[in-house]
Amino acid sequence: MSVARRAFIQMSVGATVGILFTPTVWVALDDVSIWTQNWPWIPRLKYGEVKSVPTVSKMCDSGCAVKVRTCAGEAFAVAGNEDNPLSGGGVCPLCANSAQVKNSPNRIKTPMLNGEEISWDKAKEVVAEKLDAAGSSVAVISGDQNGTVNEVFSALLADKGSDAFYMMPCDMQAADKAWTGLMGGYGQIGYDLEGADVVLLAGADALESWGPTVANLKAFAANGSGKFLFAGPMQTKTAAVADKWVPVPAEGMAAFTLGVAYYVLQAGMTVDVADFAPFRAMVMNDYSPAKVEAATGVKADRMAAIAKQLLAASNPVVVPGGSVAAHGAAFALNLLLGGAMKAVPEFGKAVSTAMSRSEMLNKDILEGVNADLLFVYEANPAYALPEQVKAGFTVAFDSVNTETTASADLVLPTLHGFERFDDLASPYGVADATYSLGVPVSKPSVNAACAATFVLGLADLGFETFEEVLEAKAEAVGADMDALAEGGAYVAPGETPVAAGLAANVLGKAAVPVKGSGALGLVPYTLLNVGTANRATTPNAPCTISNNQLLGDKMVVMMNSATAKQLGVGVGSKVKLSGGNGECEALVQVFEGVLTGAVAAPLGMGHTVGDEFSKGKGDNVYKILTVSSEAAAGASTWAGSTVNVAKI
Amino acid sequence: MHVKEFKIKWGMVIDIDKCTGCGACMVGCQVENNIAPMTKSDPYNYAQALTKDRDDASNKLRTLTWMNVYELSNGKAFPEHETAYLPRPCMQCGNPACVPVCPVVATDKNEEGGIVSQIYPRCIGCRYCMAACPYHARYFNWWDPLWPEGMDKGLSPAASVRPRGVVEKCNFCHSRYMEAKNQARMDGEDPMNLSEGAYTTACQEICPTGAIHFGDLNNPEHAVHELHKSPNAFRLLEKLGLSPQVYYMSEREWVRKQGDNYNAGGSGH
């Protein structure tokens, strides 16, 4: 059939008109525009009964007492626990995101031996074999400062004839070395921040990261008339709300405290201890305000004014942070003032062969760890102490992937805090002995297990499961397990501290400021939303990290304008910081709240392993810290770290 | 200018002298309101090689922070320097600048309680409201919300997730208001006369220092009723006349002065 010209034109016009009138084309175009923009994946909300279940969260160093909000049994948010004095209804920014971390793809899903998935039975065989072979060359590094899990680990060490129990560096350790070690005191030091009328925070960033942060914040809020003074090298977040910020370099904190003690001694205050006379003589001769001013740069009249305020107060307290010497000096000053410092008695042990807390704090991880078999429990030494820790075979227990689990031989996934039994026994700093229990809120979402129960299976320690250990602990504490499980805390009042002496001869030498050889003082600081030595930042927290810490993927360091001028750098300058055995890259921010001649750098960034929220973000400041030996006090410290700063 | 008045006026009084800027309120807010963590890669984007990465949380122009903490400085050099932190939710203005500019009535102030609404399905993403809001309290979803694998299991039942292309903001945890009213009805109480603490926002609840006070500004039985009349209380950009329902408090004069920096000293522009 041939198509005539006319027929062809008729057909074309007909088709054109037809297309114009049929909706098919337009509907198809509309569909294309919609479907190409469609949401590929629509998150669906789960509805159901909403409950608040009390437990504890151990994301931050001291741990938070929380209530986990669940919907149809699934944890979705964290709220404070008003019934527990550690929380009083508040939560720290790390623990506030704990439910999200529980569901994070960064969780370790199953036991791994050198990168191969293995079963829990196989893992137990491997560890038992290594344990036999290692003899007494076994060590434990714990990232938990106040849990009974430490009793289980230390009892395992005792069973093997080892005492190599290490905690990650913390102020609790410096406090114990000063109080129990140097001054022969009893109990764990605590500070009644709520009851004190003048609080001198001598290096303790108490309202941001130090001690039981949330309890401190609650105490600060409840203490309506108390004056808070913050002494430190940087205007931290604590300083932002304190009544006064006194700029004091970290290495000069002990000398500064003794400088204040000078005036207190001059006012005739005494302590009934054997070495009071030598202590007084030491302070009056070696730490006169003029000498302290020359050594630390803190004006004598500043110290006089602080001493006057402390002396006029009816219940003052000095809260130290940093070196052992700084702690010793503050304890001596507190004893002179007779204020709100407390000695918190330790709770009874659940595992009879376990170490006491003071024994656990005895070994100094900064001096190095070397063992044939090393257990690391929820700590991240490969990130924070890369040079100090060596082991033939490392078993890392953690719930999420970290630098330490990545470099360990055997990785054992622990249950997330909301999936397990756990406890919080008197976090360092609380004024009263406080015991809280955590019970499982959710079912395990990965093939994880309780670390302590695993360890109980390796040796005969008298218990089968960690739950039994906690029952024994509650009994030893004298608390009712059911009341604890409902979120209440067992509280026994702190006692008046009594020391055998003031360690006059040691303090006199140890308090002398010792600084590194770098051009600038390094002020490392911790913000809980950025993370701690053991825990990286959490999924929702990066939004809260300010441009003063992180800009893009670059770490930001802060200095005042005088320091910046000295270095010839300005806002946004790219610099290299070198100190210790490492280097860091950073951008400069000018912040007038940093001591002249110092640079402030945030700890907790620069992870090389982990999720996208922390990995590759900023740089790791632990690399440039210098460990210096506090020879006189028999300890090591990071205070006095210095760096050289070069523009790049 | 017409300020809309209501019998119940939910408001905040934020004590800046108690705020340490820890960020717990920001985290609590994101969790409560299903604001997704910012992720660079999109596993559902099958043309990843052809498209650029999404923004992560380092790009503060693209983050969604209904509650945002600002750092203030007294502007003086060391050692006279002082800092303060200022948490900024939506001000729930009495005379909101965002409402009249919305071409589709996706945002309105018309409910008892005085909370400025945001109706996501109605929003066309023109962002006029964002331009109008002097407090930068409104946020645009530049990207679809995306939870890393498995994390969508733990979504909050309090807020539906919003797609890209719409504007969102703080609504004083409105679902908690509805729950509190329902609870009052169940308990045989008056839902229009909630007792203090019956309705709380996520940020207020989680704040470790209790810096955020929340309640009905008109109700003499609520703490904020007295607090917002304190001589140390102030509102941000008071002179713009938007009449925010969020008040701040500080004993520090420099902080109070910065609260109204638009017309500092009254000289104006």
Molecular structure report:
The complex is a heterodimer of chains A (648) and B (269). Chain A is an alpha/beta fold. Chain A has 21 helices and 28 strands. Chain A has a seven-stranded mixed sheet with strand order 5-4-16-15-14-6-7. In chain A, strands 21-22-24-23-28-20-25 form a seven-stranded mixed sheet, covered by helices on one side. Chain A has a four-stranded parallel sheet with strand order 11-10-9-12. The mean pLDDT of chain A is 94. Chain B has one domain (10-38, 57-263): Alpha-Beta Plaits (2-Layer Sandwich). The two termini of chain B are 20 Å apart. The model of chain B has no long low-confidence stretch (mean pLDDT 92). By secondary structure, chain B is α+β, with helices and mostly antiparallel strands. Chain B has helices at residues 24-32, 98-101, 128-132, 174-186, 202-206, 223-227, 253-258; strands at 10-15, 68-73, 83-88, 138-140, 167-169, 212-216, 233-234, 246-249. In chain B, the strands form three sheets. Chain B has a four-stranded mixed sheet. Chain B is globular and about 60 Å long. Chain B has seven helices and eight strands, in the order E-H-E-E-H-H-E-E-H-H-E-H-E-E-H. Helices cover 17% and strands 13% of the residues of chain B. Chains A and B meet through strand 3, helix 3, helix 7, helix 8 and strand 21 of A and helix 1, strand 2, strand 3 and helix 5 of B.
Task: Please state the second-level CATH architecture of chain B.
Answer: 2-Layer Sandwich
What oligomeric state best describes the polypeptide chains here? heterodimer
Question: By helix and strand content of chain B, what is the structural category?
Answer: alpha+beta
Ends distance of chain A: 82 Å
Q: Mind telling me the C-alpha Rg of chain A?
A: 29 Å
